[in-house]
Specification:
The chain is about 30% helix and about 25% strand. The protein is an alpha+beta fold and about 450 residues long. The protein folds into two domains: about 90 residues, Nucleic acid-binding proteins (OB fold (Dihydrolipoamide Acetyltransferase, E2P)), CATH 2.40.50; about 325 residues, Bira Bifunctional Protein, Domain 2 (BirA Bifunctional Protein, domain 2, 2-Layer Sandwich). Strands 6-10-11-16-15-14-13-12 form an eight-stranded mixed sheet, sandwiched between helices. It has a five-stranded mixed barrel with strand order 1-2-3-5-4. Strands 7-9-8 form a three-stranded antiparallel sheet, with no helix packed on it. A hairpin with a 3-residue loop joins strand 14 and strand 15. Helix 4 crosses helix 6 and helix 4 packs across helix 13. The chain is elongated. Bound molecules: 4-amino-1,4-dioxobutan-2-aminium adenosine-5'-monophosphate and magnesium ion (MG).
Length: about 450
């Protein structure tokens, strides 16, 4: 007999005579002749209550079973006598798969996020992290569904690469040479290889063939910034649209964020409720406001002017020509506009080579989407589709034309306006759950000096 998941059982329309459930013990309470056992199988936040009584041949062992033990229960789904749940399970066979010892680290009390990071192998079994990783899965699905409904094709771009998309030089090197050797010609690829920081360049090539595409995969950055919103390994969602300009790009960015929020409201109620109650009391109203508002669209120089004119004390005062700091992003979205802001037309000097040069020849058609609590969640642009402009921007940026010959060539044969962006997947989960540290939305996070698990 196949096991039934607890999320299905809890939604049952009527009693069921013979069911099999498997999962882990959360708590046990004994009375004289029977025990109440709260069991969870990870399929949903809620536990199911199991009643085990002294008619079971192994009842003596059941009375000793600890939190964390794995069990298999066969029995009847019956209306619950107690308050708080509609259904419970009357056990007819109760197999202890493995009895956990008493030192199971996840006892009933609440543990700090910092402590739970040190036991990342067990934290998915807590309510909060179980919910976080279920919602992570559900949001991935919502993203695929969004693109499918909008005519995008899912493409896979390489993770091992020879190019640096963002030109920031924050790449992890990949080599099979032993330490101390630097005869690259004898290395696996005969060339310097790195882990990708973005699938964009290859996604552009596919967009210029398939029309509208997106990648959704892991990316890597060796930036040594130990912040709450940076990880060395994170996932990015990167749509790329042929024959589209920056306006279309902004529309898509706004639409996907709203879509995912609506999806979570419709499909992830139980888990979302946990975050609203225990993680961030302002979460629900913030998400409703984001889903219901038109995002502000603001040229970069106006954004800088707003900050210069404000009386806000910034650690780094805003100035034309420097990138926006997190404190600026949060000021704009949380204090000034109180909603998401799309900043566009940045000075070309602070943006990568591939962004389309505007007619003023000073700014590029870049766009960053900023949201409350997080700051930048999306970075994107219209791409430079004009061969000569691209070439001179590459030279200006110190890129080797030989290394990127294939990228340049895409601007020679049937080039077309196209646009795209990168949505930081973990930052999206942070926005939706109210979790404030990126280490807590990734099951096994990779950050500077941390590669345990
Ligand atoms: O703004 P970024 O660097 O843009 C790109 O990589 C473009 N090539 C994307 C594209 O146009 N296809 O990164 C995009 C997003 C950021 O807005 C942020 O949400 C997230 O990726 N991000 C990170 N998330 C977690 N940890 C890091 N270290 C991140 N760096 C960027
Ligand atoms: Mg960016």
């Amino acid at each position: 007999m196949k096991r039934t998941k607890i999320n299905k059982l809890l939604k049952s329309e009527g009693p069921i005579d013979d069911i099999l459930i498997k999962g882990w013990i959360r708590t046990r309470r004994d009375s004289k002749t029977f025990s109440f056992i709260e069991m969870n199988d990870g399929s949903c936040l809620a536990n199911i209550q199991v009643i085990a009584d002294d008619k079971l041949p192994n009842y003596e062992d059941i009375r000793k079973i600890n939190t964390g033990s794995s069990v298999s229960v066969r029995g009847k789904l019956v209306p619950s006598q107690g308050k708080g749940q509609k259904w419970e399970v009357q056990a007819e066979e109760f197999e202890i798969i493995q009895a956990a010892p008493e030192d199971y680290p996840l006892q009933k009390k609440r543990h700090s996020d910092e402590f739970l990071r040190t036991i990342a192998h067990l934290r998915p079994r807590t309510n909060k992290y179980g919910a976080a990783f279920r919602i992570r899965s559900d949001i991935s699905y919502a993203i695929h569904r969004f693109f499918r409904e909008n005519g995008f094709r899912y493409v896979h771009t390489p993770i091992l690469t020879g190019s640096d998309c963002e030109g920031a030089g924050e790449m992890f090197k990949v080599t099979t040479l032993s330490a101390g050797r630097n005869d690259i010609q004898n290395d696996f690829f005969g060339k310097e290889a790195k882990l990708t920081v973005s699938g964009q360049l290859e996604a552009e090539l596919l967009a210029l063939a398939l029309g509208d595409v997106y990648t959704f995969g892991p990316t890597f950055r060796a930036e040594n910034s130990n912040t709450r919103r940076h990880a060395a390994e994170f996932w990015m969602v990167e749509p790329e649209m042929a024959f589209c300009d920056i306006e279309d790009n902004m529309d898509l960015a706004e639409k996907i964020i709203k879509y995912v929020i609506e999806y979570v409201f419709a499909e992830c109620n139980q888990d979302l409720e946990l975050f609203c109650r225990f993680v961030d009391k302002g979460l629900k109203s913030r998400l409703e406001s984001i889903a219901g508002s038109d995002f502000i669209r603001l040229p970069y120089n106006e954004a800088v002017n707003i900050m210069k004119k404000s009386n806000e004390k910034f650690e780094f005062p805003a100035s034309y020509g420097s990138d926006l700091q997190t404190e600026h992003e949060r000021f704009l979205t949380e204090k000034y506009f109180k909603k998401p802001v799309i900043v566009f037309d940045y000075p070309k000097e602070i943006k990568p080579f591939y962004m389309r040069l505007n007619d003023d020849e000073k700014t590029v058609a870049a766009m960053d989407v900023l949201v409350p609590q997080i700051g930048e969640i999306i970075g994107g642009s219209q791409r430079e589709e004009r061969y000569a402009f691209l070439k001179s921007r590459m030279i200006e940026s110190g890129l080797s034309l030989d290394d990127y010959w294939w990228y340049l060539e895409s601007r020679k044969y049937g080039s077309a306006p196209h646009s795209g962006f990168g949505l930081g997947f973990e930052r999206l989960i942070m926005l939706i759950t109210g979790i404030t540290n990126i280490r807590d939305v990734i099951p096994f996070p990779r950050t500077p000096k941390n590669i345990e698990f």
